[in-house]
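As noted in the main text, all predictions were made from sequence alone. Below is one such record, for Transcriptional regulator, HxlR family.
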Amino acid sequence: MANFIEKTKMDKLEHSECASAILPVKDALEVLGGKWKLQVIIALSFGAKRFREISREVGGITDKMLSKELKDLECNQLVKRTVHDAFPPIVEYDLTAHGQSLHKLIGELKAWGDLHRKVVLGK
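Prediction:
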């Protein structure tokens, strides 16, 4: 009986630990998930850019989708939108400090992607 109680306690502890590991990853994937967000962040990691510059660097994204992704990233405080006082107005997008905190993660994803290409594609 004592073994069963200990096992039940361990199962609950393991479940709690699992849930506490899943939740932040789920949150991160919600913010960064999709085909375009990380590509936009990578483009901005090389410096502030205007809308058209981002669009060119992230090939294949529509203007509507880029606009949506930039708004989502801005809402999550990863991207800052700056309107310069000029005629016509100049709008630039740049990573915030919070957005720059993704550099290490993106580096790890790149390294894993390189390894994955070698393993799966033999390249």
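The chain has a mean pLDDT of 91. The radius of gyration is 20 Å. These features were considered when defining construct boundaries for the mutagenesis experiments described in Section 2.9.
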